[in-house]
Amino acid sequence: MTDAQPFADVEDLRSALDREGYLADDALATALYLAVRLRQPVLLEGEAGVGKTHAARALAAAAGAPLMRIQCYEGLTAAETIYEWNYPRQLLAIRVAEARGAPLAETDLFTEEFLQARPLLAAITHPGPTPAVLLVDEVDRADDEFEAFLFEALAEAAVTIPELGTRRASVPPVVVLTSNRTRDLHDALKRRCLYHWIAYPGPERVEQIVARRVPEAPGWIARQVAAAVGRMRRLALQKPPGVAEAVNWADALHALGVTRLDEAAAARTLGAVLKYPEDVDLVREGGLAALLQHG
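and the corresponding structure tokens:
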């Protein structure tokens, strides 16, 4: 089967992302377009909260494609991402067969009828014509063994089910891997991928993003939150706030009916933007007035 190309060019993809509420610069839009056009995995790295996961979600929505997500964690095994057998349904089939006096053979229990596809198998067997988007989120949290398996599976666009054989993609998925760089990934996997680093955006871009993500909030909230978050990032925080935290803060201020981001409003809502008590203390010690200076 020949898969459909959902985007004519980089600008077409960027416009489609924009319609989904995701603002991508030219470099990120180019990396995502090449991942779609060349069907080569793209590795998005950056600090937590800069929009890596959201980029994959927006790409899938813009392409009109299903999103299959593998959330990585320590101890994740290959089998957990490929398939599992529907044991309750198998047991029911056994009981029904026994009641009819026609016991099932073991081979009767390991068929398509009882197979439950996990994200990797679902992405590989997606029939198209538009390819599925496979998001491998926080791949740096997985073990070396899973990383090695993932490299092989992506290189072959295939997985093997012992009872049923090898499944190869007729329409290979678009693969987006994300990493917060908690550890270095193997060179072999990185060589396989396109690469893009998503940096913290500047205040103007943060303002635009917040305005898109919290459209019901007045414009001053997006503007003042973006400015304050930019100043926070210049402090020696354990976890500088990203775009996600800026959006959360704006959402919280709007939900509380705040009419001005002053010291009192900031003090009440710092938990929406800062996630460590040491960071909250550092911001308070530096003075909320300096953080919130307007103009």
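(Above: one complete record from the training split.) The radius of gyration is 23 Å.
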